[in-house]
Write a structure and sequence with these properties.
28% strand, 2 helices, alpha+beta, 4 strands, two-stranded antiparallel ribbon
Length: 78
C-alpha cells in the first residue's frame, strides 16, 4: 500500500480494551554536506539539492550569497 506524501506518519497501538491509540512518529530531516568547488554558486547548489537559497543561507548562518572554494555547506531537506 502506497501512503501519500502528505499523509502524517503514525504508529497505531491497540490497547487491551480494544481502543486504538495513534502516536505520531517524528520524521528526521535528511542532512547532507556539500563542499564548494570551482564554479559553484549558491543558486546552483540550491537547485541541485532542491532547497531554497534562503534555507541554505539560514542553515549555514550566511549573510551574503557568496560561497568560498572549499567551504562545506550543510543541506537540510525536511
Amino acid at each position: 500500500m502506497k501512503v501519500p506524501a502528505t499523509a502524517p506518519i503514525t504508529n497505531q497501538v491497540t490497547a487491551s480494551v480494544g481502543k486504538k491509540e495513534t502516536k505520531p512518529v517524528k520524521k528526521t530531516a535528511d542532512i547532507r554536506k556539500h563542499k564548494v568547488v570551482q564554479g559553484d554558486t549558491l543558486s546552483g547548489i540550491s537547485s541541485q539539492y532542491g532547497v531554497s537559497i534562503a534555507d541554505l543561507k539560514q542553515h549555514n548562518k550566511m549573510t551574503s550569497d557568496e560561497v568560498r572554494l572549499g567551504q562545506v555547506l550543510t543541506i537540510s531537506s525536511s
